[in-house]
């Protein structure tokens, strides 16, 4: 949360952009960072008592109840004043994260990405 707030403050220091663009950029950068850190990395950085069952799972598949993406989406929607273009970008970003959390997609790797 602190890193996300710091990212937003850094983006706000860039001149020539409006507040809705900053919120959309914060949302997109958060989505991309979460993809890299949670979907591309497998296993755990520490030893777990599950006899290495999590070794083949990404961090996202090991977590539950990730609500930060929804809160960030709602903040971005409010601060972009419900603009249609920003709505489409932010909604696509949210759906790309949330669809992977559905039980039907647990352990599924689309297009063979990060399969091994």
From TrEMBL:
The keyword Ion transport does not apply. It holds the Pfam family ORMDL. The keyword S-adenosyl-L-methionine does not apply. It is a multi-pass membrane protein. It is found in: Membrane. The chain crosses the membrane at residues 6-25. Its main location: membrane. Ceramide-sensitive subunit of the serine palmitoyltransferase (SPT) complex, which is also composed of SPTLC1, SPTLC2/3 and SPTSSA/B. Belongs to the ORM family. PANTHER family: ORMDL PROTEINS. This is ORM1-like protein 2.
């Amino acid at each position: 949360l602190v890193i996300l707030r710091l990212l937003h403050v850094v983006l706000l220091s860039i001149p020539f952009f409006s507040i809705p663009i900053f919120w959309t950029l914060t949302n997109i950068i958060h989505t991309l960072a979460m993809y890299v850190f949670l979907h591309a990395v497998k296993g755990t950085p520490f030893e777990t008592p599950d006899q290495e069952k999590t070794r083949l799972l990404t961090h996202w598949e090991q977590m539950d109840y990730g609500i930060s993406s929804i809160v960030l989406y709602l903040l971005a929607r409010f601060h972009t004043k419900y603009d249609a273009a920003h709505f489409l970008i932010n909604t696509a970003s949210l759906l790309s994260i949330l669809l992977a959390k559905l039980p039907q997609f647990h352990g599924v790797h689309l297009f063979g990405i990060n399969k091994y």
